Predict the structure.
Amino acid sequence: TPDFQALETSNRDVRKKALAQAEALAESLRRANSNHRIDVEPVVLGNPAVEIVRLADEQSAGLIVVGSQGRSGIERFLLGSVSERVLRHSPCSVLVVK
């Protein structure tokens, strides 16, 4: 049987680390250009594309920046593409970077 407590602890640690890295990047961007509002939201669980679009809509975001793995063909069909789903359903502009 899986050790759910260990899994939850690991999940919490990964989310804390991701939030700390995002905060550090946001602070660097704020120092470079203080004219723009840069918010960092805690990592959420769920379908990535759905949660990104939901948060952008809630926050009235002007731009979503997402990464792309560059999958194509059968891999893309089987695994899907978060960036593609965000592009199709986003309430604002989307920048996709490799």
Summary: The mean pLDDT is 84. The chain has four helices and two strands. Strands lie at 63-67, 93-97. Residues 4-32 form the longest helix (29 residues).
